[in-house]
Amino acid sequence: MFKKPIQTPLQKSKLKSSAQRALRNKLVEQFPLLEPYIDEVMPKKGSLEIIKGPEKVSIYALDNEVLFYQDGNEPLVPNLRIVHKFPQAFPTIQIDRGAIRFVLSGAQLMCPGLTSPGGKLPEEGQDIEKGQVVAINAEGKENAVMVGILKMGTKDIRTVKKGVAVEGGMYLGDGLWNLKIA
Amino acid sequence: MSIQEARKLQTTSKQHPSTMSEITEPQAKNVLYCAVCSFPPEYCEFGPSSTKCKEWLQKSHPELYSKIWEADPAAAAAAPVNPATQDKAAHAQAKLEAKHMANLAKEMEKAKLAKIQITEIERTKRKHVTVIVGLEDFGLDMKKTAKELGKKFATGCSVTKRPAGGEEITLQGECGEEVKDWLEEVKKIDGKQIDVGRGKK
Question: Which chain A residue has its CA at the smallest distance from B79's CA?
Answer without folding.
Answer: A118
